[in-house]
Write a structure and sequence with these properties.
Blueprint lengths: L1 H9 L16 H19 L4 E6 L11 E4 L2 E11 L6 E7 L12 E5 L2 E3 L2 E3 L3 H4 L2 E5 L9 E3 L13 E8 L10 E4 L2 E12 L4 E9 L11 E4 L3 E6 L2 E6 L2 H5 L3 E4 L14 E6 L2 H5 L6 E8 L11 E4 L2 E8 L17 E8 H4 L8 H13 L3 E6 L7 E6 L11 E2 L2 E4 L6 H17 L3 H32 L2 H28 L7 H29 L21
Parallel strand pairs: 1-9, 2-8, 10-18, 11-17, 14-18, 19-26, 20-24
Antiparallel strand pairs: 1-4, 2-3, 3-4, 5-8, 6-7, 10-13, 11-12, 12-13, 14-17, 15-16, 19-22, 20-21, 21-22, 23-24, 25-26
Main location: membrane
GO cellular component, one term: plasma membrane
Protein name: Intermembrane transport protein PqiB
């Protein structure tokens, strides 16, 4: 047992250690793993971005078939189509090429190209065979984006087209549509890109794009107005007819320009805001925004006087009618008489004199008060007989007055006169009264009798004319002109013979005396021969037989 114990203590102990050399067998899976990782990285590195597009509906969109194009070049393909979480739109996932990553700017635009028919014409017919595709229009922004809302229609102008974009806002104007033209002197320089209604401000907002180099035409003094179709206006100035281009006549548009009496001003920057006016006349009124307001109480009828009618001084416009009536007229009562129809009058300082804006309002109020004290009055006059439109005329036929102007609802009252229409109406009524006072019954009765007698006389004249006409139709009467003509010819020949024979037949010539004596002797002979001629007429055989002896009766005639 002791020997066995010694033997066991003498045996060496085993030492444990890690294997220092790796087997080559493990290199194969490690290399395969590295190669797979490199392939995944290389595939990811060469894979383009994945974008999300939101559309109202997925009409014409197919997974794996619908492509994304830029300038008719494929840059991606739709990989998934599904409903959005809100279930009110469709979410499209598309994978783009690597080169298309730089095209995904914040202002990039997407829209579906398919057959369309609109005011600009027919487009997208090529998709009838190839199918719809998504068009990408790159933007200019440096900020990148991967989720976009697809436009319902192609944009009017691309985001990278050089030009100027403006913002217009207007109330009580004709609603314009996207794509309507922008005109400068009836020449198209741009298009309306966007149109929307702001319910909070209760106005229409538009975004306009003006192409380069026409963007330099827009300055700080430019005015924009609606140039829609045919504009026909009937007012105190007469009939006005304005027409634009053929396209604006059909759909409408926006026109702009600088008033003639204003400087051009400096050019504006991008996204500048302007006001859109309903017409050109309204845009020109903006330069006369500074004005003095008065009230005029007219006793004449204001029928035909409309807001916007001119206020003129000897044919020159100096103001505008603001409201008709200005407020409810104050009717007659026991303590206060009727003062007339109140009309709001705006005297525009820009029309009163050159550089009038440099003076204060108090200065011009004193000037107006001085003119009133000198006899200035307002009258209503007919500006157009066809339409019956009235305007306010400033005259100086009133009586001078040295007192302050009356007040009406915190506004000064300008004196008026009814010397216009009221006096004419009074004169016409007075003339009608005088005509009504005349006793015209007897005159009318005598006139009736005279007309009856005239009718009878006309009947007798018609009968006489008929008798003369029947007499003229007889053959004997119709032959008289020829016989008379022959007689006149013979008489003319006789006179010629006498002239050649006798010569001068004047009373002082000897031939005239001889002829006169011969005619006297001939007359005497004719007087003496008259009984003989009478006897021959009664009994032609008196020259052969005795006038008292009876005719011899032949024998054998008795029975």
């Amino acid at each position: 047992m002791e020997e066995q114990a010694e033997y066991e203590t003498e045996l060496p102990r085993a030492k444990m250690s890690w294997l220092r050399r790796i087997s080559l067998v493990w290199l194969v899976p490690i290399a395969a793993l590295l190669l797979g990782a490199w392939m995944v990285f290389d595939t990811w590195r060469h894979q383009g971005p994945e974008i999300t597009l939101y559309v109202p509906n997925a009409e014409g969109i197919e997974v794996g078939k619908t492509t994304v194009k830029v300038l008719s070049v494929n840059v991606g393909k739709v990989t998934d189509v599904e409903l959005d979480s809100s279930a009110h739109r469709v979410r499209i996932t598309a994978r783009l090429d690597v080169e298309a990553r730089k095209l995904l700017s914040e202002d990039s635009q997407f829209w579906v190209v398919k057959p369309r028919v609109d005011r600009s014409g027919i487009s997208g017919l090529s998709t009838l065979l190839s199918g719809s595709f998504i068009q990408l229009n790159p933007g200019k922004s440096e900020n990148m984006k991967e989720a976009f809302t697809v436009l319902n229609a192609p944009p009017v102008t691309a985001a990278d087209v050089p030009g100027l974009r403006l913002v217009l806002s207007g109330r009580s104007v004709k609603v314009l549509s996207v794509g309507d033209p922008i005109l400068y002197q009836n020449f198209e320089v741009g298009r309306v890109e966007k149109a929307e209604f702001d319910p909070e401000q209760r106005q229409m907002n538009y975004r306009l794009f003006i192409q380069r180099p026409y963007d330099r035409l827009v300055t700080v003094n430019s005015r924009f107005w609606v140039a829609s179709g045919v504009q026909l206006s009937l007012n105190a100035d007469g009939i006005k007819l304005n027409t634009g281009s053929v396209e604006s006549m059909l759909s409408g548009g926006v026109a702009f320009g600088v008033p003639e009496n204003m400087p051009l001003g400096e050019q504006v920057s991008d996204q500048s805001a302007f006001t859109l006016f309903p017409d050109e006349a309204s845009s020109l009124e903006r330069q006369f925004e500074r004005r003095l307001s008065y009230v005029a109480l007219f006793s004449d009828s204001v029928r035909g006087l409309k807001p916007g009618a001119p206020v003129e001084l000897r044919g020159l416009r100096i103001g505008t009618v603001g409201a008709v009536p200005y407020s409810i007229p104050k009717l007659e009562n026991k303590t206060r008489k009727y003062h007339g129809i109140p009309v709001l009058i705006h005297l525009e300082l820009g029309r009163l004199a050159a550089g009038a804006e440099k003076e204060s309002d108090d200065y011009w109020r004193k000037v107006i008060a001085t003119q009133v004290n000198s006899g200035m009055v307002l009258k209503l006059k007919n500006g157009n007989l066809l339409t019956g439109a009235l305007y306010v005329d400033v005259d100086f036929s009133g009586k001078p007055q040295n007192k302050a102007l009356a007040r009406y609802d915190n506004l000064s009252v300008l004196p008026t006169s009814d010397a216009g229409l009221a006096q004419i109406e009074g004169k016409v009524i007075a003339l009608l009264d005088k005509l009504n006072a005349l006793k015209l019954e007897g005159v009318l009765e005598q006139g009736g009798k005279t007309l009856d007698e005239t009718g009878k006389l006309a009947g007798d004249v018609r009968a006489l004319v008929k008798t003369l006409d029947d007499f003229a139709q007889q053959p004997q009467v119709q032959g008289l002109p020829g016989e008379l003509q022959r007689t006149l010819n013979k008489a003319e020949e006789t006179l010629k013979t006498l002239r050649s024979t006798v010569g001068d037949y004047s009373g002082q010539s000897s031939a005239y005396g001889e002829l006169n004596r011969a005619l006297g002797s001939l007359n005497q002979v004719l007087q003496e021969a008259r009984p003989v001629i009478r006897t021959l007429n009664e009994k032609p055989n008196a020259l052969l037989f005795d006038r008292k002896q009876e005719d011899i009766q032949p024998k054998g005639t008795q029975p």
